[in-house]
Design a protein that fits this description.
Layout: E1 4-6, H1 8-21, H2 26-41, H3 52-61, E2 71-76, E3 79-83, H4 89-107, E4 109-117, H5 124-127, E5 135-141, E6 163-167, E7 175-179, H6 186-195, E8 204-206, E9 221-223, H7 229-242, E10 267-275, H8 282-297, H9 313-325, E11 327-329, H10 331-343
Parallel strand pairs: 3-4
Antiparallel strand pairs: 1-11, 2-3, 4-10, 5-6, 5-10, 6-7, 8-9
Helix pairs in contact: 1-2
């Protein structure tokens, strides 16, 4: 079996059918399928359909509640905490983002946290919900497994704890920063393992401090933080804000959802929305962001550098390209998805013609 292209429409329909077959109500299955497909469209291959088999395994084992009752456990005019009732993280964070947007319309700034959530895909999905509302979105999550020790230690007490910020522009693509507090997200390690590829030096080390290049041996080592102790500090603070502050898991309480399909993860996240209109005219602001783009792009380049790139530029280009030409899926993943189709008695994922 070779790599193949699939359309976003076919991919979303396939994910919907598999999730519905595993107990998600149709409206919820469509929401999650849409968000997972959006992850693949923007090139976040480690957080899209790649995760479907893992979600199904947890749904079947009781690790995720297919029919959660989402409630606001705490609420103030500009803040809230969503209790996700152990539902799919995509549902929890989609709900949290919508609550945050509604509040920011009234208060200018809002902060909505979550508890009893689950892995929700790439951070940028939720920060980017702000863009259509003339808002700036900021999202942080406690990762769904610990892959990093505190700086200088060997006990894995911290996760990748990602952050995403989405800033709208007028004519230019939005600025979208989406990054882990580790040099690489663990999803990239997993996709490299599935494809039979090595990972670059600097992503992971073993417990003797030596470079670890084989992603299939990732359990023998840990991810490295960005910027040494600075990345460790960011991961720690983000974990407190997204985990401890929400009554969600942090430190030794984080459940490794890669290896444990039955336990509740009690994942914590938060999303912050800034209503641009509370600070200045949104049209003027977005025009100014276009100016920022042009200014950054006009910088002289170092030898060997062809152009200056801004956060979100590749994401935008990937979405345009994949929306037109299809989403590439490697052979190993297609084999897994065909197995899911058979296991759940749904039609196989249709490949694009050509």
């Amino acid at each position: 079996m070779a790599e193949a292209l699939v359309t976003a429409k076919n991919l979303e329909q396939f994910i919907f059918r598999v999730l519905a077959a595993n107990g998600l109500p149709e409206v919820d299955a469509r929401t999650v399928a849409n968000l997972m497909t959006a992850a693949d469209l923007i090139g976040q291959d480690g957080h899209g359909v790649f995760r479907l088999a893992q979600y199904v395994k947890r749904l079947k084992a009781g690790g995720i509640n297919p029919t959660p009752d989402l409630v606001l456990a705490q609420e103030f005019p500009a803040s809230a905490v969503v209790d996700g009732d152990n539902g799919m993280g995509h549902l929890v964070m989609d709900n949290a983002a919508n609550v945050a947007i509604d509040k920011a319309r009234q208060t200018g700034v809002s902060w909505v946290g979550s508890r009893n959530s689950n892995h929700a895909g790439p951070a940028s999905l939720y920060a980017m919900k702000a863009l259509a509302e003339d808002m700036i979105g900021l999202y942080v999550a406690v990762g769904s497994a610990n892959h990093m020790p505190p700086w200088g230690g060997t006990d894995m007490l911290l996760s990748t704890n990602p952050i995403a910020v989405a800033i709208p522009a007028a004519e230019r693509p939005p600025i979208v920063l989406d990054m882990a507090t580790t040099v690489a997200a663990y999803g990239k390690v997993k996709t490299a393992a599935q494809r039979g590829e090595m990972i670059p030096e600097g992503w992971m080390i073993d417990r003797n401090g030596k470079p670890l290049l084989d992603p299939k041996r990732s359990s023998e080592g840990f991810l490295l933080p960005i910027g040494g102790p600075k990345g460790y500090g960011l991961s720690l603070v983000f974990g407190i804000l997204a985990g401890v502050l929400n009554g969600a898991a942090f430190g030794r309480d984080v459940v490794d959802f890669n290896t444990d399909s039955e336990s509740r993860t009690n994942t914590g996240q938060f999303i912050l929305m800034l209503n641009i209109g509370a600070f200045m005219d949104p049209v003027e602001f977005k025009s100014s962001i276009d100016g920022v783009w042009d200014e950054m792009k006009s910088s002289a380049c170092l030898p060997g550098v062809s152009e200056i790139r801004l956060p979100g530029e590749r994401l935008h280009a990937t979405r345009v390209e994949r929306s037109s030409n299809g989403i590439p899926l490697p052979a190993a993943l297609l084999e897994v998805l065909d197995g899911l189709a058979e296991e759940n008695a749904v039609p196989k994922l249709e490949r694009a013609a050509g």
